[in-house]
Amino acid sequence: MSKYTHIISFFYPSRDIIRCSINLKVIANFSEKLFATHVVIKVPVPKNTSKSKIKNSFGRAKYEPEQNAIVWRIKRFPGKAECMLSADLELVRTVRPKAWARPPINVEFQVPMFTASGVHVRFLRVYDKAGYHTNRWVRYITKAGGYQIKI
User: Fold this and answer.
1) CB within 8 A of 100, min separation 6: which ones?
2) Domain 3-149 bears CATH identifier 2.30.30.40
3) Of 1, 66, 54, 67, which Cα lies nearest the Cα of 23?
4) pLDDT of 84-128, one tens digit each?
5) Going by C-beta distance under 8 Å and a sequence separation of 6 or more, which residues neighbour residue 12?
6) Tens digit of pLDDT for each residue in 42-62?
7) Domain boundaries in the chain?
8) Separation CA 75–CA 42 (nearest Å)
9) pTM of the complete model beyond 0.85
């Protein structure tokens, strides 16, 4: 989940409305045998966004005004896969125009049965006098810590 391509352009067709276009491409940069789960990508938009038209190739995406972001949720993202999001936004002109700070894009995800560090458990022994029966199974999971991409 480390390769991103993003393009944000602004158009000014009339006096009251500003149009903004966002194109985002996400590539899963891990083996095709694995998959990412619970992927949530938050693309920030200006506070004066009034309408949005969103198209995406995977999952579900919608504009959430309370977060000032387009929130894109993907349940299962296969390795080496590519997905795209394009959004056309309409921004209302404000009385006091203020430059938009362009906060970073936030990404949350999990990759089951994958260790980013490469650490694997080869041997484990449990000593218990009470007769505890162990199962030979180890669960690996990789979670995104605070993954952000600057626009």
Assistant:
1) 46
2) no
3) 54
4) 999 999 998 887 877 888 899 999 998 888 887 788 888 777 787
5) 18, 19
6) 999 999 899 999 999 989 999
7) 3-149
8) 15
9) no
